[in-house]
Amino acid sequence: MEKYINVNRLVNRLTDNEALKTYYTLILMADTQEAKMATDKQFWQSFEMTNPTAKAAIRLAFQEAERNLLAETKRLRQDVTDYQSAIKLKIAA
Fold first, then answer.
1. Got the DSSP string for 28-73?
2. What distance in Å separates the CA atoms of residue 18 and residue 16, rounded to the nearest whole number?
């Protein structure tokens, strides 16, 4: 359950697009590489059958999610750095 909660938090920070939320959640929750590949294949097959307006919205959502992922990566890196600093202070005290 904790894995799902963490995945859900991350996905919600990456995108508001429901299709992308579902895609990312399924990919991140998949237990095997084969399951991830099957999910990815199914998503892109569905994407190809989608109307042009929806395709454009999904492409835009992917671009936004990519920018959000970069910001999220920086935030997580800072969290790790802060945590490491706190540990060093405790050890030194």
1. HH-SSHHHHHHHHHHHHHHHHTS-HHHHHHHHHHHHHHHHHHHHHH
2. 6
* Burial class (CB within 10 angstroms; exposed 0-12, middle 13-18, buried 19+) of 2: exposed
Whole-angstrom distance, CA of residue 39 vs CA of residue 46: 11
- pTM across the whole model: 0.73
CA-based nearest residue to 66, from 5, 20, 9, 6: 20
Q: What is the pLDDT of residues 58-72, one digit of tens each?
A: 999 999 999 998 888
Give the number of other CB atoms < 10 A from CB of residue 72. 14
Instruction: Please name the residues in contact with 4: beta carbons below 8 A apart, sequence gap of 6 or more.
Output: 29
Which one-letter DSSP state was computed for residue 1?
-
